[in-house]
Amino acid sequence: MNLLLDKICLVAEPSDTEAGDSGSPLLSKIDDKNWVQVGVLYGGGGCSEKHPFSTTQHRSLYTPIDCDWISRVTNDEVKCKGW
């Protein structure tokens, strides 16, 4: 498993994640009224490349939502769409 291929690396400006934030959702707005959760905060750091538009070094790692796992552990009671 390649850690960075299985994670979402996010440059968080103007805010950043702090200790204790692990497990927080990463949301994406899909239209004027709806948001979807696309990830769960895994931790800070771990992204080695500096983002070209970032003025800071703050990066956060998120684990993408695993729809197969959610379906399996909820016995198909919860449905989600992969991204």
From TrEMBL:
InterPro entries noted in UniProt: Peptidase_S1_PA (IPR009003), Peptidase_S1_PA_chymotrypsin (IPR043504), Trypsin_dom (IPR001254)
Coiled coil: none
All copies of domain Peptidase S1, residue ranges: 8-52
Name of this protein: Peptidase S1 domain-containing protein
Organism: Heterodera schachtii (Sugarbeet cyst nematode worm)
